[in-house]
Each structure stands twice: as structure tokens, then as C-alpha cells.
TrEMBL record:
<feature type="region of interest" description="Disordered">
    <location>
        <begin position="176"/>
        <end position="195"/>
    </location>
</feature>
<dbReference type="GO" id="GO:0015628">
    <property type="term" value="P:protein secretion by the type II secretion system"/>
</dbReference>
<dbReference type="Pfam" id="PF07963">
    <property type="entry name" value="N_methyl"/>
</dbReference>
<keyword id="KW-1133">Transmembrane helix</keyword>
<keyword id="KW-0812">Transmembrane</keyword>
<comment type="similarity">
    <text>Belongs to the GSP H family.</text>
</comment>
<keyword id="KW-0488">Methylation</keyword>
<protein>
    <recommendedName>
        <fullName>Type II secretion system protein H</fullName>
    </recommendedName>
</protein>
<dbReference type="InterPro" id="IPR045584">
    <property type="entry name" value="Pilin-like"/>
</dbReference>
<keyword id="KW-0997">Cell inner membrane</keyword>
<dbReference type="Pfam" id="PF12019">
    <property type="entry name" value="GspH"/>
</dbReference>
<keyword id="KW-0472">Membrane</keyword>
<dbReference type="GO" id="GO:0005886">
    <property type="term" value="C:plasma membrane"/>
</dbReference>
<feature type="transmembrane region" description="Helical">
    <location>
        <begin position="24"/>
        <end position="47"/>
    </location>
</feature>
<dbReference type="InterPro" id="IPR012902">
    <property type="entry name" value="N_methyl_site"/>
</dbReference>
<feature type="domain" description="General secretion pathway GspH">
    <location>
        <begin position="55"/>
        <end position="159"/>
    </location>
</feature>
<dbReference type="InterPro" id="IPR022346">
    <property type="entry name" value="T2SS_GspH"/>
</dbReference>
Amino acid sequence: MQRNVLASPVPVSNDQHGMTLTELLIVLLIISISFAFVFPAIDGFLLQQRGYYEIQQLQTLIDTSRTTAVALQSHATLCPLDSQQRCDNNWNASLTLFQDRNGNRALDTNETVIQTIPAADNDVKRHYPNRALMFDERGFAAVNNGSLSYCRRLPNNRYSTSVWIVSRMGRVRTGRDTNGDGLPEAASGQNIPCF
């Protein structure tokens, strides 16, 4: 009985080939240099996206505040709360939107929390000239009007910013950078507080 043996078109060798230590070090060096340039760019992009998300979150919270006041026919208050559940001036703290039935700028036991957003990190500055942004049952802000600003520090002296200008009538508009310096202006015409 005869067996057919097929010849391999590729020569088979028992020699093993690999990279030398020098070649491996050069490849690792190239990869390391590539990462050194790519990671800062990715980090800056991710921080900018986070800024956009937080701006959208604040915009939604402001809109929800006014809508809640009108829908519930009650005061709706947006503010940072202190340990006694009263509105405070630290707008970088966690922000709480609640139904403020008696309009006292404090979260009382019979009042409902509508929404909260977490405290800002160290690269963010939020500012509002009052302790609270409060809308009444008609949607008016009255004496609580002002400019709520947001500024996130990004790499290379750049910022992700926004400002919402709240009128006494309760209308909210977004401020613009009219002087071209990279920061939007508040209702007063001054740049928003940033770093």
C-alpha cells in the first residue's frame, strides 16, 4: 500500500524567528510617544464634552423650574442648599429644584424636591448674584432675576462657558460673547466670572 505525500509549497523550517530586544524597545518607544500626543487631546475633548453636558443639564433645570412653578401654581426654587436646608450662595454646591410652597427659599418638610444636580468639580465655576432662582405661580422671577453663569476650565487656557439671563418676567435667554474675547457677557455687559 502506497501513501501519497503532498509537498508543501512553503518551505518548512525549524528555525524560530522573533524580535530582538532593540526592535522591541523601538516599537515600545514609538507607541509611548504616540500616546503622549493622543491622550492630552482626548482628555481635552472629553472635558469639553462634559462641559456641554453640564451646560445642557443646567439649561434643562432652569426650564424645568419655570415650568414647575406654572404647572403646580406654586413657587419653584432652584438653589444650593446649606445644612439647614436653606438656600445658600455657594452655586458650586449641589443644586436643588423644589416646590417652595411658602416662598421662603428653604426646603421645608412638606415641600417636594423636583430635581437635583451634583456639585461642580474644581474646574467649574457657577455663579448667580442671588441665593436662589425662584419663579412664582405665573412664571415670573421678580426680584430673583439675574445671570446664572457656568465656566469649565479646559486645557490650553480654553473654557466651556454659558450664561442664562433671567428677566423679571421670567424669560430666560442665553448670553453671547459680543466682544469676541471667548467669554459670554451677563445682562450687565460684563464677562461672566471665570478663572
